[in-house]
Amino acid sequence: MEWEPDAAKEIERIPEHMRRMAKMGIETSVEKKSKNIVSIEDVKEAAQRFNSLMKKDEKTTKIAIVRCDIVSETCPGMACFKAFNKRKVHFSDYGEAEIIGFFTCGGCPGRRIFRLVDSLLKHGVDVVHLSSCMLMEGGYPKCPHIEEIRQMILKKGVKVVDGTHH
Ligand code: SF4
Asked: Which residue's CA is minimally distant from atom 7 of ligand 1?
């Protein structure tokens, strides 16, 4: 595939580690237009597509759910996902959102929380939901460590929401 000189110059502005991928993406879209030479317009179009994708990603709320390790032995978590997918109960206020983590506390007193929230932060987590199983009295007792767990997450600078599907 040939590149017009101004298109080749424009692509040089992209950081080196991303340039190869960007070139491949642009050449693929140029091929789809049945062309065999890349113009400056093709590069600008690709830049626009990339920018709008980035903006979309910025607007997406990134959610993680922590749940009780004991309850996870009997619950695969369908109700949490169902509530999220249908934007019900504690997920009803979200627009663009995705679940980026679904994890158990690691057992009393929530020994895994600290490390996993650190990992989630690297992936831009905005909010952690404390699953309904941690908050409810039912076939199992309410989590006795819920306040410590909540504080652990808040100290990391991440918002906490109580509940998922109840
Ligand atoms: S700390 Fe709470 S949520 Fe975690 S296993 Fe114990 S009771 Fe369940």
From this structure: 143
DSSP per-residue codes, the chain = -EE-HHHHHHHTTS-HHHHHHHHHHHHHHHHHTT-SEE-HHHHHHHHHHHHHHHHHHHHSEEEEEEE-TTGGGT--SHHHHHHHHTT-GGGTT-SSEEEEEEEE--STTTTTHHHHHHHHHHTT--EEEEPHHHH--SSSPPPTTHHHHHHHHHHTT-EEEE-S--
Tell me which residue has its CA closest to atom 5 in ligand 1.
107
- pLDDT per residue as tens digits for the range 1-48: 999 999 999 998 888 878 888 898 899 999 989 999 999 999 999 888
Examine the domain organization and report whether 81 and 148 are in the same domain. Answer: yes
For residue range 47-62, what is the model confidence (pLDDT) as tens digits? 888 877 766 666 899 9
Q: Using most ligand atoms within 8 A of CB, pick from 145, 146, 164 the residue to mutate for ligand 1.
A: 145
* Judgement on whether residues 70 and 50 belong to the same structural domain of the protein: no
